[in-house]
Each structure stands twice: as C-alpha cells, then as structure tokens.
Amino acid sequence: MAQEKPELNILSNDISTAQNKFEKKRYQKILPRHNIRKRCPPQGTRRNNDVYVTSSSNFKSQLGQCRKLIEEGEQEIVIHGLGAALPQAINLALQLQDLSHNTWCVSTGTDTVDVVDDLEPLSDDVDFDTRVRPNSCIHIKLVKKP
Amino acid sequence: MQRRVMSHNPKRFPRRLREAHIDMQLKSGIPNVVKTPSRKYRRRPQNLLQEYNRRQRRFVWLETHIWHAKRFHMVEKWGYKLANFPNDKSFRACYRACKEHCLLQDISYFSCIEIVGELDNILKGLNQLTSTECGLTFGAKCSLQGTRECSTTVFRVKAYPNGVIGTVKFMWKPPGNDSRRTLWVWCHAAYYSELFDELVKVFSLKNIHDCEEMDVDCDANEKSESENSLVSKIPKYTSTDCDVTVSQLKDTLNRFRLTGPLSQPILTDLLRVIDPDKMSVSVTDSTMENSRLSWAHSLLDQPETVEILKKKRDFWDKMKLFTEPSQLPPHSVIPLTVSDPRYHMPQIRTKLVSDSEGQSGIWPLKTIPADFVQDNGMWEPSIRDKSRSEKLSTAELNLIKSDQLVPGACDFDNLAPASYLPVILIQNPGFRPQFTKKGGGGSSWGGGWDVVAPAGWAMPLWLGMAWRGARVGGLRASASMAREAGTLCLPPDSAAGQMCDAAERAAKTDAFFRKPPAKRPNYIKLGIPTPFHRPWKELIRDWNDSENTPSTFCVLRSIAALQNLNSLLQELRNLSSSALNEKLLEIGLEVSSFLVAVNVRMCKRGNLCENSTLCLPLMEDVEKLKENGGFMGPVEPSHVDIYEDERRSARETHQKQMIRLRKKRKAAKDKNSAETLKVLKETTDLKVKEERALMQRLWLPTEIGNLRNGCSREVMGFLENGAFSYKEACSTGQGYVALTALLKFCSHWKTVAPSKYPLILVRSPFSYQYSFAELSIIL
C-alpha cells in the first residue's frame, strides 16, 4: 500500500517536536514496535473483609460495602490500594474512621510490588518482552477498638 | 397433539357413520400417513443414534450439542448447529461471569488446518496471504518457538489491501530434531473454506487421501478399528511443487473458551497433570486389578521426557497461586498431559473460589520456559486417537461406581485403568481497553484460557468445567462480549461478512413487511434510505470525486496508519491549525476507498443501535453545545414522502382488482368450469405478487440517491452494532466511517472544540433526533 507510506513520518515528526514530558509519555504509549499491555497486579488474600481499591472503582459504593461489613459485625477490615489508587484508599479508610466516630483504630503498612507490563510485538522481527516496574501499595488495617 | 383426530382416523368415528366417512375420504384421496414408531422404540440407543446421525447430515453438531440443545436456542450457522443463547436470563449474567466469575463457551467451530513442511517452503506460500503492514505474519519471530499463539489477518493471494478473508490464529509446533515444521492455523468456520481454497492455490495442493488403499488381508476386527480411528479420516493434501502437506483437522479437535478470573481455579482444579513418580509406581505394582498401560506410560521410557513431565507437574502446582489468568504471560501456550477429568468430578455442582495466599515464589512469571512446550501428544494424530480409544465409556465408569459399598465415594484412580488425554492451554490476555474515558474498564477484561482437546473428550471436560461453576454462554454472549470490549468481528469487506450482512438484511426486511403498514416506520420521511443494511459502496462513492470513484472499498488495517490517525484525533485540541493542515496533507488525499473502524460512545441519554448513521456536526450544533451543556442535539426535519400518493392509489386499484377477480372466481365456481377457475387463481396470485413487489419498492426504494448529503447533516458512516454497555455504563457501538470523512471531520473539529474528545452526531434509523457521541478509533 504505497500511498500509506508518508504517514509514518507523522510519528517521527512528533518525537522530534516533543516539547514536554506529556508528549513523550504519549509517544511511549504508541511505541511503534510494541503494544503495551498491563498485567493484572498480584493479589494477596481475597477474604470477605479485603477491599481492593482501584482508580476506576466507585468510591461511594466501596464505602457502602465497608459500612455493611461493619454492620455485619466484622472485627477487622483491610483496605488495599496500589499506585494511583493510594489516595483513594487512604480517603476511604479515613472516611470510615470518621463515620464510626473513632471507634476503629487504623494501622497502615506500606509495601512495594513488582507490576509487569507486557510488550506485545507489532512486527515480525521483534519478540515478546516484559517490563517490570516497582509500584507502591498500601494495606490499611482497620480494627475495632476493644 | 394432532388436531381433529377424528377426521384423520376413521376408527374414532361412530360405527354407523364410519362407512360414509371412509367413502368420502377415498374420494378426496387418503392422506399418506406414516405411523410414528413408539417412543420406546425411538429411544433405543441404536435407533436414537441413527436418528442423531440423520439430523447431523445437513448441519454438523459439535460434541456438546445434545447438552446445549437441552438448554439453549440453537441456530444453523456456518454449516454447524450452534448454541445461540440459553433459555434462562443471560445478558447481565454472562457479563458478570466474564467480569467476576467464568464464562464457558464451546468454540469448536473454529477449525484447524495443519500445515507440515520445511519452514521456508511454508512461509514462502503463506506470506502471499498476509501483509507485514497489518502486524504479525506467520513467520513472526515470537511464534516460531511454539510458546505463543499469535493472530494475523489473511487476504486472498497477493490482493492486499483488498480481498480480506478474515483473522486467523496460529501456533507452531516447537522445533524438534527434524527440520520439518508443523503449523496449526485456527480459522473461524465462516471463512474456513475460503481460506482453504487459497491454500490450495498457494501450495497447488492435491488430495492424497483417496490413494490410501485398505489392506484386503486384514481381518474384520482390525478393519473396524481402522474405521473407528479418526486418523484415517482426516483429509490430506500434498503440494505438487514443494514438500508441504496440508491436513484438515476440522472437527477432530475441540476448543473451549473460558473467560473471567475464575477460569484459573477451575482449570487448575479440573486438570490433574500426569505425575511420573506415581505412574512408575503403578506400573511396577502389578497387583492392581485393572492395571493397563495407557499411551502415556510410553512417555516414561525416555528420561528427558520424565524430567520435563516432572517440571510441568511442579509448574502446574504453582499455577494454583495465580488468581487471574491475566497475571500470566499473554498468548502463552501450555501443553499438558492430564488424567481423565471424570475421575475427579465434584460430588455436586460447586463454585470454586481462588484462595491464593500470595505468589511470592513465582511472581513475576515473565515467560513460560521453552522446554515446557516440548513433547506433547496433542500434535500426534495417533496419540490423539489412542487417548480417545482408551477412554472408558461413561457406562463402564458407572458400573465401577455401582460396585462400591459406599454410594458416591469412588476413587477411580485406584479402581479404573489409568486414562490420559493431551490438552493444550492457550492464555487469552483479554481485550485492549478501547474507550477514551479514564478508567473505562481494566486491561484484563475478557481474559481467560482456551482449552484445546482431542475429539471424544469434549463432554468429560465440559461437564468438569460446568460442574466447577463456569457459566455457559452461546453466540449471543460472544457478540455482546465483543461489543463491550469495543471490537468488531467479520469485516464488511470480506465475503463472510457480506454474507452475514445479506442474511441479516433479508431477515429484517422480511420482518418489516410482515407488519401492518400503520405499524411500519416511514423511513422515507425519516430520511434513512437503508434501514436494514449499511451501504458502504455508496458511502465511498459519495465521498469521492465522480471521476476517480473506486469500485471497491476496504477497511484500513495498516497499523501505522491507524496509530497516526488515532494520535491525530487525540491531539486535535493541542494542534495548531497550520500543523493540522500539514498533517492532513501528509496523510494523503488518495486514500479514498478506505473505511476506518471506530468506537462510538454516547455522551448523554439515548441508546445506540445497529445501522445508526454517524454524521458530521455543523458549526452551529457545536456552538449550541458549548453554550448550553444540556443541549441534546439537533433534530432532522421530516422529509417529503414522494411515494405516499402512489402507494395509496396503487393500493386502491389493487383492492378493486381483487374484488373483481373474486367475483369472477365465484362465477367460475358456480359454473363448475375448472379450467377458468385455475386460470383465474393463477392471475390472482400473480397480481398479489406484483402488488407486493411494488409496495416494497414504494416503501423502501432500492436505488440510493445521494447518501452523503441526503440529510441535514453530512453522513460519515454507519454503526455495525450498538447497545447498552454494562462495562461503560452507557450506550456504546462499533462501526465504520469513510476515511475521507474522518479527515474532513478532523479539520472541521479543530475550529471549535467544546469537549476533550472528538464528538460526532449519531441518529438511530427510527428517530429524527441527533445525539452527540464520542468517537475513537479501533486499533
């Protein structure tokens, strides 16, 4: 398809005129030789009282979920958050503490997990590859005060 | 129940009336009534099987057909009888299964073609069918080791970018000592024969199956055995100019698709991987009553194989620690040898949950080691056959079970002879997120496993999975999954897609004219010339100059071009108008016959549906939206129906004619002139047919005028499908727009951009209301 060839230039122009880091970031998103696919992060326990917060989860519904757990007589709730969802997880824990009038004590643990991005080849001469990057996570344990 | 039994069976009449009745029946000709055999007779296994074989003659059944037929609506599609949707409520349930649990589908209608030969010879032929511009091809470096399954788009011989056949998946057999390589190409049933015809052309294939002659001396027993084996039935073709053999493995392999996080615990629980330590013990232990050497025992002869088997066993134990299939390397192929799943069935239908306590030891698993893929029986037709013939029938297993003192508890491992089957697991990483909105679904949506098993093993595996809590879906579930993910299947420029569209169009037109006229939407007034199909050819015609109108259209598949377009659309707001013009010029003006696949996402209220028109917004629409955020969109003025009077007058004359003919028929009947009556009846039928054709033409004119400027907003393209998406929490759809239209949209949109994402107008075929929707390109 000869008529499509000139379009390739757009990309290279883009890179050279990249002025800020946002544009660079965008360039990384459309790496020409690979597709980037983010793998699911590793999950620990999946008990009833484990709440995993992600940036796309609904805050209000998760708050309701935690309140329901409290009403059901749960003695301990663990809220997990990873990367960009850290503030949301902290916010959730603080809101819960507020709602329960400080009858629950909060203990926080931080950790780092390795998350994996898969680089899927877009052309024949490249192979699959992975990119491992460390990401911060938080585990907030809410325990009912005796 | 037969209605009016009495008139069919004279013995049910009172005796005094019987004679007269028989006389009358004789005069009118006794109907040829075939007595239905009794149910008891019909249900005898032999007769039942015969009946099943008769019913399979026209449309092939999958191995799980009877299980599905009891629970699903079946449709005849692509030469198969396939499950469409279950009898219980399923839309939301299937979505939830995909997202949180496990959705199970029998996709054995994906057929496999095996190509054996020297690597260079195979690639030389197959490269004529693919293009490097569309991504990976058959010779992709990442696929040659046999550790990953890849997919590619196939075209007719050297016809790219036209003549698309469809997307196929392929996997190479891992390289062995032999220089000959084996390739499996998995192809959808809709374009299987088309692809095979191209392969015949490329390799100049000749059938060799007929050359195999039966040995005359072999006794009856052996003969029946060879008849049972599937190996001898596989159609084989050989190339006349190079050393390449092609076999059609259609219907000799089963492929199941599990989607959703629960597929991981289901598979790790279902598949008990062969344990060489235990097996060698059972071989030496001759005291066992039912001991028998299965095909898998021959694997223990070689020490290297035993090592690999042990490694695989350890690896499979670790697999239990993963909670989701999308935590594993994408598209990885894991061949396993597992024991009969019926030996480990749960007592009742249960739902498994993943109970992983951290994956510290194995995370992150970057790739599946290459030596894991070695030595799998799945690639050998003889082993596939052996595993099938060594399989105990369910009746035999039930006999063993019934001998047990404690009902229910039965340790088949010790009681029944060992039986193993080879399987191949293929990881499916799920769909890439397509929609522009932040957090619009995780990347892992739709991830799971594909299980490939030899023929004869479908039901044991199927029941094993269904009993562990997998929810079964049909074709409708596949379609809605693809829509949620924002992808399209069966493209409109392929023969398979066009056939599918034509069938859909015929069915919808038929349904439209079955309605009374007052209940039909007037598509002329609505300004929708093609409510039941998508006129791509006319769209391309109208978006081009009259001089160099391309005769065909095709979908833009070049990855580089699509990525450029995508980045252009995303950066529209930041680009200066001079830079934009430059880029538009660069993209070129000759790209005239291309369609671009797009995702459409409704901004406000309203529902998308298939065949909706995608239109360019006018400047005033966008300005109104900018002023008033609640502006729903412009309204199309009602068009003038020029055929209304013609329809009315035609109807009136027709009715008058019918009355006249009825009178004539009555007169002929009274005169007992059969000849005239016959002629009159024929005339009536002809008139009715003519009237119907005329009315259809007056309701839905066949000639399409100017499609592009037929309405108050310029038409860019059409939607292939659309409905409410649970994942996006709004209405979404997929369709195609003309590339020329998209480029015009880019330059158009730049001047006023009220929203972060490019907005277009969408109109359903039965509504005057345009609505704003976000546009993004399907990569």
UniProtKB/TrEMBL annotation, chain A:
GO cellular component terms, A-Z: nucleolar ribonuclease P complex; ribonuclease MRP complex
Superkingdom, taxonomy of origin: Eukaryota
The keyword Chaperone is assigned to this record: no
Keywords associated with the record: Cytoplasm, Nucleus, rRNA processing, tRNA processing
One of the protein's GO biological processes: tRNA 5'-leader removal
Gene3D superfamilies, per the entry: Alba-like domain (3.30.110.20)
Pfam family, one: Rpp20
Molecular function via GO: nucleic acid binding
Keyword Phosphoprotein: no
Location, primary (coarse class): cytoplasm
Localisation per UniProt entry: Cytoplasmic granule; Nucleus, Nucleolus
Residues passing through the membrane, by range: none
Role this protein plays: Component of ribonuclease P, a ribonucleoprotein complex that generates mature tRNA molecules by cleaving their 5'-ends. Also a component of the MRP ribonuclease complex, which cleaves pre-rRNA sequences.
Protein family membership: Belongs to the histone-like Alba family.
Subunit structure of this chain's protein: Component of nuclear RNase P and RNase MRP complexes. RNase P consists of a catalytic RNA moiety and 10 different protein chains; POP1, POP4, POP5, POP7, RPP14, RPP21, RPP25, RPP30, RPP38 and RPP40. Within the RNase P complex, POP1, POP7 and RPP25 form the 'finger' subcomplex, POP5, RPP14, RPP40 and homodimeric RPP30 form the 'palm' subcomplex, and RPP21, POP4 and RPP38 form the 'wrist' subcomplex. All subunits of the RNase P complex interact with the catalytic RNA. Several subunits of RNase P are also part of the RNase MRP complex.
The name this protein goes by in its record: Ribonuclease P protein subunit p20
UniProtKB/TrEMBL annotation, chain B:
Segments forming domain POPLD: 448-536
Spans through the membrane: none
Gene3D superfamilies: Probable tRNA modification gtpase trme, domain 1
Keyword terms: Nucleus, tRNA processing
GO terms (BP aspect): tRNA 5'-leader removal
Domain named POP1 C-terminal: residues: 595-778
A GO cellular component annotation in the UniProt record: nucleolar ribonuclease P complex
One Pfam family here: POP1_N
Compartments where located: Nucleus
Domain Pop1 N-terminal residue range list: 46-117
Cited PANTHER family: RIBONUCLEASES P/MRP PROTEIN SUBUNIT POP1, RIBONUCLEASES P_MRP PROTEIN SUBUNIT POP1
Protein name listed in UniProt: Uncharacterized protein
